[in-house]
Prior knowledge:
The protein is mainly α.
Amino acid sequence: MRNLSLTTIGGICGVLTTASFVVGIAMMGGSGVQVLIPETGNNGLDWIADVDSANGIFFVGAWFIILGGVFALVAFVGFYEPLREAGAVMILAPVLGAVGMVLVTISHLIPIAMAYELVPDYVGASGATKASIASTFDAFAITSLVLNYAGDFLVWGVVTPLYGYSVLKTGAAPRWIGWLGIIGVGVFAGLLNALSPASGVAEGLSFIGFVSFFVFMASLGVALLRRSRTATVAPA
C-alpha cells in the first residue's frame, strides 16, 4: 500500500467503474428491468410490475451500479494527481466529481429501497391504500430523477470535460481521450442530456455521450496505469 500511488488507484478505479456498470446493466436487463430509476405515472407502474416479476439478479445488478458509482468517485480523485498541472482550475474537478457522484449514487439508492419496500407493498395492497402507495412511489421516483439529472450534469457537463481538457494540456494520456471527454461526453452527455426533457432528439443523441463516458473512464484509467508503471520502472 505504501508504494501504491494515487494515480494507480485512479486508473484502477476508472477501469472498474466501466466494468461495474457494464455488469450491472447487463444483469438488470437480463432480469427484465430495463432501467434502475423509474419514471412516474403509468411508466412507474410498469417498472413496479417488472421488478415484482424479476428475480434476485435485478438487485445484484443494481448493487453493481452502486459499486460503479463509488469507483467513479475515487477515480475522479485519482485522476487529479497526474492532470493537475493543467492549471489551478483543475482543483474543481475532483471536488465537483465527488459531489456529482454522491448525487448520482443517492439517486440510484432510492430506487433500490423502493424495490425492496414499496414494490411488494403496492402489489399486496388494494383500493385507496394502493393509490396512496403509488403517490408515494411517484414522489420518490421524481426525487431520484432530479438528483440524477443534477449529478449527471456535474459529472458529464463539467468534470469530464475538465479532465478532457487537462489531458490535451498535459499530454498525460493520448489526445483522443481528451477530445472524447470534451466532445463525446461534454457535448453529447452533458449538454444534450440537460436538454433531453425538452427534446426527444436530444435524448436520443445523449446515449452517445452515455457510452462515451464509460469509454473515457476505462481508456483514461488504462492510460494512467501505463503511465504509472512507466514512471515506476524508469528509475530502475
